[in-house]
Amino acid sequence: MRKYVIGIIIGIFLALSSxxxxxxxVETSIFPVNFIFNGEKKELTGEYSTLNYNGHAxxxxxxxxxxxxxxxxxxxxxxxxxxMYDEDKPLLKDFKDTGKVYxxxxxxxxxxxxxxxxxxxxxxxxxxxxxxEAEQVLCTFDLAFxxxxxxxxxxxxxxxxxxxxxxGKIMPFEKTVNDELQDYDSIRLNVSFLDGDPIRGDxxxxxxxxxxxxxxxxxxxxxxWKGCADYAPAPDLINRHQVTAAEVQSGEEIKIxxxxxxxxxxxxxxxxxxxxxxxxxxxxxxxxVPAGKGVHIYRLDAxxxxxxxxxYAFAVKVN
Length: 319
Prior knowledge:
InterPro entries: Cu_amine_oxidase-like_N. It holds the Pfam family Cu_amine_oxidN1. The strands form 7 sheets. Strands 17, 18, 19, 21, 22, 24 and 25 form a 7-stranded mixed β-sheet that branches. This protein has a 4-stranded antiparallel β-sheet with strand order 8-9-10-13. A 4-stranded antiparallel β-sheet has the order 16-15-20-23, with no helix packed on it. It has 3 domains: 43 residues, no CATH class; 127 residues, Sandwich (Immunoglobulin-like); 111 residues, Immunoglobulin-like, CATH 2.60.40. A hairpin with a 5-residue loop joins β24 and β25. The chain has 4 helices and 25 strands.
């Protein structure tokens, strides 16, 4: 009898569980349909499908937004989807490997020889940027104001530092320039940088300089990172630290690199002769050792988006 009662209880439980599961199932079907936007046919890609549920067609909102020149992004913290569009003007947009950037509602107001530029920005981050360790994201973009012929009248650069948690939200921005800018026909958006904020830690990363057979010792020079420090010129740094110049051959190739992400957007190299320095040609971070025998002292300068910059000193000896 006891087993019989237990069996009934288990049976009722399974039946109720099956009913609960069945009630949560939504029956849909793939709905083959063509989409025509302003007379132009747009195909659904492999990742998109149209579903039929209760006689209604359900389409991925990203597909609709992107084909109506709108920006779209998902904000995980608030479980919300932001859609950006402009009823009167084309939406400004630029796409990078790290995400998509949209700008609209750009407005100018001038006073006393200055112009204040305001607008809204929406960043749809890539999966790699979302999964990065960076807590802050840096977005550097230019607004190029153009005349009717497409000639740039003025290009204004702005840099925003955004917490990663705010990616996917529509946010306002503002920039004031010492110039009067009112008459323009169109605006073009160009994003030059979108990635984790390069300015991390108290000190800039140390450059790596590699000859064919050995690593060249590098001394940190003047820098501005989270703070600034001013050091002596490269020859004085080499002497003060009693650096032994790395022995290399005339015509040998030397490679400069940084074990740091993101990389500097620009590096410059100078070679000292006495107290004066002359620029050295760099090709993808590489340069060739000169023919003259003796010790050659170099100054390396590196620049990161967000205002970070650093100089370094190193020396090689040609036998």
